[in-house]
Design goal:
Length: 99
């Protein structure tokens, strides 16, 4: 499982985004990052928005709790989740990736 770090502003973890996929899903791991397939294209921030919406749904938190802490213009991003501890995020990601 990928490392999830607790910080004062929320739990953080890395993702690698693959845009223009057939469906939104967690497809595995790439090193220390979670691989996300997203249907949105990487233009005008649509893939970033899709990333936030998908992860909020997977983690069962409001969209406002999920932010991109770093890497908005890159496939490699750092995601910050407010309101959950790192262990809770890990557990919810593990359940979602096993579907």
């Amino acid at each position: 499982m990928i490392p999830v770090r607790d910080t004062p502003s929320g739990a953080t973890f890395q993702v690698k985004v693959y845009p223009r996929a057939k469906k939104n899903s967690i497809t595995g791991e790439a090193g220390d990052a979670l691989k996300l397939a997203l249907t949105a294209p990487p233009v005008e921030g649509r893939a970033n928005q899709a990333c936030i919406e998908f992860l909020a749904e997977v983690l069962n938190v409001p969209r406002s709790s999920v932010t991109i802490a770093a890497g908005e213009g890159s496939r490699n991003k750092v995601i910050r989740v407010r309101g959950l501890a790192g262990t809770q995020v890990e557990a919810r990601l593990k359940v979602a990736s096993s579907r």
